[in-house]
């Protein structure tokens, strides 16, 4: 098998995983997969991220002034999983995932 065929097969498998995650999570599953010289990164919808990782097992960044100031990240076996969200989503997290909200608030110094 040559590199083109192997790449096509890999992309088809990844596309299937993305589609399945979107279907199973009401559109909040995997939103992007990047594989490049910077490594492998998988962007999850915020709810999927919070339901995949327990509080205190991910890093929190607060970049005030950005459209999506909050970034949560966790690396598993060399794959960086992350989600980004804004203040309105943070307010929703306070109601839907209070333990995560408490952790995010403490770490992000809100």
Compose a concise summary of this entry.
With 110 residues, this protein is of the alpha+beta class.
Keywords:
110 residues, alpha+beta, 4 helices, 45% helix
Biggest beta sheet summary = 5 strands, mixed
Strands of the widest sheet, in order across it, are 1-2-5-4-3
Mean pLDDT: 91
Shape type: elongated
Between the first and last Cα atoms, what is the distance in angstroms? 53 Å
Count the beta strands: 5
Roughly what percent helix?
40-55%
Give the topology string: H per helix, E per strand.
Answer: HEEHEEEHH
Which radius of gyration do the C-alpha atoms yield? 16 Å
Indicate the structural class. Answer: alpha+beta
Residue share in β-strands: 25-35%
Low-confidence stretches: none
Q: Output the number of helix runs.
A: 4
Overview of this protein structure:
With 110 residues, the protein is of the alpha+beta class. Helices cover 45% and strands 28% of the residues. It is built from four helices and five strands; from the N terminus they run H-E-E-H-E-E-E-H-H. Strands 1-2-5-4-3 form a five-stranded mixed β-sheet. Helix 3 (87-96) crosses helix 4. The longest helix has 22 residues, at 3-24. It is elongated, with a radius of gyration of 16 Å. The protein starts with a helix and ends with a helix.
């Amino acid at each position: 098998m040559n590199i083109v065929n192997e790449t096509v097969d890999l992309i088809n498998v990844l596309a299937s995983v993305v589609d399945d995650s979107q279907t199973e999570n009401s559109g909040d599953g995997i939103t992007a997969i990047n594989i490049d010289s910077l490594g492998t990164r998988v962007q999850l919808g915020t709810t999927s991220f919070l339901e995949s990782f327990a509080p205190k097992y991910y890093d929190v960044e607060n970049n005030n002034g950005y459209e999506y100031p909050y970034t949560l990240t966790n690396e598993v076996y060399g794959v960086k999983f992350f989600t980004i969200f804004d203040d309105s989503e943070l307010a929703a997290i306070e109601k839907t995932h209070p333990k995560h909200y408490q952790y995010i608030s403490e770490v992000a110094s809100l």
